[in-house]
Amino acid sequence: MLGTLCRKVTVDMAAEKHLEEKYDEIRKDLEKQKAALLAEAGMIIGTGLNQDKLNFPDMTDQAAAEADNNFTLRLKEREQKLLKKIDEALERIANGTFGMCESCGEEISYKRLHARPVTTLCIECKTKQEEEEKLRE
Length: 137
Description:
- It is built from five helices and no strands.
- The protein is mainly alpha-helical and 137 residues long.
- The chain has two domains: 2-98; 100-137, no CATH class.
């Protein structure tokens, strides 16, 4: 009985180590992406959002600058959401739940995870979700 338990613990630990190694490349990519987003955000905080364009005497130029600022802010909001998803993916890697579909519980293909590492749904569940969203529109 004790021998069986020891083998099971050893197998579980080996499987956990294999999962860590399996997703190590994805974890490194996520960390690089996060660092790049944070560095870019730091530059914007340091320089402000196009401060030199805000005081144009021409109303058209001022409107164009304002539109540029609004567009930049929307991009930053999207990047902020992506940062949150990256943090959540890194947390899932750390706690061993990365790569499992939140909807059906099946394993998400490595190819999909490599292409979209912040995903939480397998391709089948994501397709189903998108089809349901289309029907609601």
